[in-house]
Write a structure and sequence with these properties.
The chain is an all-alpha fold. The chain has helices spanning 19-23, 31-45, 55-75, 91-98, 105-121, 124-136, 140-148, 155-166, 168-185, 190-201, 208-211, 214-230, 236-247, 254-260, 264-280, 286-297, 310-325, 331-340, 347-352.
Length: 359
């Protein structure tokens, strides 16, 4: 164990000899879980963003713990202190298992020379790219301060940065990160996603190609479907808000959303929500209903007819009868509001409400 004397309680985990404890991940955590924990801790404790005197030491220990776990995974080894983890093969087994087949003396003599030639052929730019990616994972502010700002008017370095941004690995990183932001904020606080993209745009990275990718559009439709399925029907303004927000970034997923909810199953879901809203609040302001219908029209889906489905007709009639029974003065305005919203009562409904309202 490391010496904990004089270490603040909130930093003691970083002085543990167990790399899992340092990163705050469970024993047996996957590579992605370890890397995510390392990134979050670096964004919090890195000396570029944290002025604590211990920040540099803490960052070294975080990166060291991640390096230890990664090295074990690559080598196939595991922490000997955890008995429930599988053991690596013995040295003898590994030596014989990994040894290549013998193909002659000439190959053996040239092994050292070939190794030297491979080192000479190694692209020095790859190391630079690895460095850029490591700084990239620390966040936009650190990347801008360390990489972008020093470029200045150096056109060669600027070109290298643009080539780095165009690489598939970087684009995938930003695509996955953006999808994560969408999952967190898409329907509650989309402005947070805008802040995230604007922050990275200050590093000269262009999100236009990323936000329009099929993966991002698919995630937007998935989140929208989940929100619509789990909420009250009066969310028309939220649908419009989403479409307007993403249109500012050149993304129009209205056709995708329309296709998703044009299926019979999802149309029935929307009809159920409309009918439930009518039943739950018999004095519902039909302006909300109209807003909901109009918002879906903007994406090409007309749900106005849903107010005239048999179950909706029955629900409105029951509400009218209830308001009349309690002598509520809003009976007339309630009926007229729904007539204005597109309600066409059947002859049977008209007969039921004859003594209450004259159609």
């Amino acid at each position: 164990m490391f010496n904990e004397n004089g270490i603040p309680p909130e930093y003691r985990q970083f002085y543990s000899s167990d790399p899992y404890e340092v990163l705050g991940v469970p024993i047996g955590a996957t590579e992605s879980e370890s890397k995510a924990a390392m990134r979050l801790l670096n964004q919090k404790y890195h000396p570029d963003v944290n002025t604590d005197p211990l920040a540099t030491e803490i960052t070294k220990r975080i990166n060291g713990a991640y390096a230890v776990l990664r090295k074990r995974r690559v080598a196939g080894g595991f922490d000997s202190s955890h008995d429930d983890r599988p053991r690596p093969a013995s040295r003898e087994e590994s030596r014989y298992r990994q040894s290549p087949p013998y193909t002659g003396h000439e190959e053996r003599r040239n092994t050292g020379q070939a190794h030297t030639r491979r080192e000479e052929r190694q692209d020095p730019q790859s190391e630079a790219e690895k460095h850029l990616f490591r700084v990239l994972e620390m966040g936009a502010k650190i990347f801008k301060r360390r990489i972008v700002d020093p470029i200045g008017s150096d056109h060669q370095k600027e070109k290298e940065l643009m080539d780095f941004f165009q690489s598939e690995r970087v684009r995938k990183y930003f695509r996955d990160s953006l999808i994560g932001e969408i999952q967190l904020w898409a329907w509650d606080r989309p402005e947070r996603i805008g802040e995230y993209m604007d922050e990275w745009s200050s590093t000269r990275f262009d999100f236009k190609a990323i936000v329009g990718s099929p993966e991002v559009r698919k995630e937007l439709v998935r989140i929208a479907s989940r929100v619509i399925s789990n909420n009250h029907m009066i969310i028309g303004s939220r649908i419009t808000r989403q479409l307007e927000f993403w249109s500012e970034y050149g993304v129009d997923f209205s056709a995708d959303l329309c296709a998703e909810f044009s299926t019979a199953e999802n149309k029935n879901l929307l009809h159920d929500k409309i009918n439930t809203a009518i039943i739950v609040d018999c004095t519902i302001d039909t302006r909300d209903f109209v807003e909901f219908i109009e918002s879906w029209k903007t994406i090409g889906l007309d749900l106005g007819y849903s107010v005239n489905l048999p179950r909706s007709q029955e629900s409105i009639a029951l509400n009218v009868e209830y308001l009349a029974a309690i002598k509520n003065s809003s009976v007339k305005s309630y009926v007229e509001a729904w007539l204005k919203a597109g309600w066409i009562p059947s002859e049977e409904i008209k007969a039921r409400l004859k003594g209450i309202y004259t159609f």
